[in-house]
Design brief:
mainly alpha; 0% strand; 5 helices; elongated; single chain
Length: 171
């Protein structure tokens, strides 16, 4: 393959991958950046500080300890709810990324682009689908995301099979 063709394919693929992930974060902004980890509104240890043992009675220490434990239980429940919402949200983000890749693969398959554009889009889609699956592994367990990934896989097989037939005919 000509060096220019390889360069064109790499340019398309290398711009396609971050474009898709950046687009996913633009259109699915929740749970990204500084919001990608749980941040409680309550700090149980600042709210219920433990005094020095010689400054409080055992009953006061026990009451503070009970208050801290109740506060920690509230924070754990808040975190569990937050993580469940994040998992659903990121599962939808993953499905959107894989769905977009599917659309681009079908576009590259049926629209008469130049060969280097088709290869660049194909390569970018493969890398992005793989990267999204690895990045969103914990969230990609949705049935929709899995179904889309299967469809993407078979479209890629169809794509490769079509190219291989054309390459063998030319030789």
């Amino acid at each position: 393959m000509d060096f220019k063709k390889v360069l064109y394919v790499l340019v398309i693929a290398l711009l396609y991958v971050p474009m898709v992930f950046l687009g996913a974060n633009v259109f699915f902004p929740e749970y990204t950046g500084s919001n990608s980890w749980f941040q409680s509104k309550e700090d149980c240890y600042l709210k219920y500080p433990t005094p020095a043992p010689d400054k409080a009675t055992p009953a006061e220490l026990a009451a503070i300890s009970t208050d801290q434990e109740a506060c920690n239980a509230r924070v754990r429940e808040e975190q569990r709810v937050w993580e469940e919402k994040r998992a659903v949200y990121n599962g939808n983000k993953y499905a959107a990324i894989v769905g977009f890749n599917l659309v681009i693969l079908l576009l590259a398959l049926f629209v008469p682009f130049m060969e280097v554009v088709r290869i660049g889009l194909f390569t970018g889609s493969v890398v992005t689908a793989f990267g999204a699956t690895v990045s969103y592994w914990d969230y990609a367990r949705s049935k929709i995301g899995f179904g889309l990934l299967i469809v993407v896989f078979f479209v890629m097989l169809w794509f490769i099979n079509k190219w291989a037939k054309n390459d063998l005919k030319q030789k």
